[in-house]
Amino acid sequence: MIGYLLARLVVSAVFIPAFYKHDVVSVYEFLEHRFGPKTRSFSSVIFLITRSLASGSRLWVPTLLIVVIWDQLNPNQPLSNWDQFWITGGALVFISILTAAYTALGGIKAVIWTDVLQITVLFAALGFSVWYLLSHIPGGWEGAKSHLTGPNDLKVWTWKGDKTASPEFIEKYGAAWATIKSVLESTYNLWAAFLGSLFVTLATHGTDQDMVQRMLTAKNKRQSAVATILSGVADIPVTFAVLMIGILLSVYYGHIVTDEILPTNPNGKVDSSRVFPHFVIDVMPGGLRGLVIAGVLATTMGSLGTAMNALATSYSRDFHFRWFKTPDEEHARVKVMKLSTLGFAVILISVGLLIAFIKAKNPDLSIIGIIFSSFGYTYGSLLGIFMVALFTKSRGSEMGNLIAMLAGIIAVAYLSNLPNVVWEMFRGAPLYKNFEWLPMITFTWRIMFGTLVTVAVAMCFKTPQRSLNASY
Q1: Mean pLDDT throughout 101-127?
Q2: DSSP 462
Q3: Alpha carbon 158 to chain centroid distance?
């Protein structure tokens, strides 16, 4: 949360004033003011692809409720992986169509006001879930703590990574580098939490049309900055509640109700992604159960609605209105926006179905990793270019920016071992051997590394005088 809030302060102080100064609707218009049309177009393409993959991946998550409800109603007829695929596929199509309808009809205004209603439901659902879990654990939180006696159960943070270097590696490269490499190859530690959240939030709240478009609906930059910071503060209890629910569930099913049969994958392991839905359907009373289910669906529809609107806005402003002759009349432009919203609804549904298909074939696959990975490979490049544009006056050029962004994406792909993973899927053997001293970073570090590489390369190119004259 420290990195998360610090990033929002930077966005409020630097990013938002620049966007208001240039009166942009799509944030990538700012890059055209600073550099030129090529940087704007390439950045918008990166956003369109990445946001489509990330938001489409999320569609799969709430459909778990449907599977859990089926299993509860038909305990002797558990769904196979492919049965789950067809049921979740139908559910995500239904949710997407409903969301696309009100988003296309009402635009950003409908998105914002439905978000207000949906976040209210979400707060209530999370709060009641924590309260209900505590009421079903003898002694409440103190009773829960009596079961959390493992060395890492209540550990607030860890400084180091979870991998131990060999004595040979330490002797060859030194203990300091061995520790740093271990940290970079670990997904969860204090440094990954702080630096990872700092760069992730800078990228999502400063360069992602999905998030920034809400800030740009405020009357002025001051109101926008205040709203950005306050929304970050409001996220603290949400994060706390989500973490608390996970901790209390582990106590409830690990120590209080130990004979409960939890949802499992085909390999017999407990499916952790279905434990909370199982608790909601199996334990909670009717009214509270409905509230929590509504909270889950509200969260999905809220994020889906803003994604559709952002994708439609970015496509229309950055490409359609520039490439195709569109009458200046408002109704003609609104029509393009509505059709674009429906078009991206189809794309998001397709991605969601693809994720459901992949999950059916690989039950142990982590969807959270997929969602964050889709951001990690590309958003560092986006953030890097925005950083050069905002914090320098004479660095970066059209061609240099494209080279820098590609370099950032390639560097992150290599440091994530992506080429080897893809090659092995088809050939069964690695494409190349990595340098043993080089860390293979996890998804929490990818945006940071992509940003640093992009900034370093972009700084090598000087902004042409004509671009300087146009932007200042």
Answers
A1: 79
A2: B
A3: 23
Three-state DSSP class for 416? Answer: coil
Task: Measure the CA–CA gap between 224 and 104, rounded to whole angstroms.
Answer: 24
**Long-range contacts formed by 218-222: CB under 8 A, 24+ apart:** 220/20, 221/16, 221/17, 221/19, 221/20
The pLDDT tens digits of the residues spanning 128-137 come to 889 999 999 9
Q: Please provide the DSSP assignment of 136-148 as one string.
A: TSTTHHHHHHHH-
- Reported CATH class of domain 2-24+39-363: mainly alpha
- C-alpha 274/C-alpha 269 separation (Å) is 12
pLDDT digits 0-9 by tens, 269-321 = 787 877 888 888 888 888 888 887 777 777 777 777 888 888 988 999 899 88
On whether the CB atoms of residues 351 and 53 are closer than 8 A, the answer is yes
Give me the residue spans of the domains in the chain.
2-24+39-363
- Concatenating the DSSP letter of every residue in 192-253 gives HHHHHHHHHHHHHHHT-HHHHHHHTTSSSHHHHHHHHHHHHHHHHHHHHHHHHHHHHHHHII
Q: For the residues of 20-60, what is the DSSP string, one character each?
A: HHTT-SSTHHHHHHHT-HHHHHHHHHHHHHHHHHHHHHHTT
Q: How far apart are CA 303 and CA 118, in angstroms?
A: 10
* pLDDT tens digit sequence for 370-395: 666 677 889 999 999 999 999 998 99
For residue 268, what are the CA distances in angstroms to 76, 262, 355? 16, 10, 22
Distance in angstroms (rounded) separating the CA atoms of residues 385 and 226: 25
Among candidate residues 27, 28, 64, 62, the one with its CA nearest the CA of residue 304: 62
Q: Which amino acid is at 297?
A: L
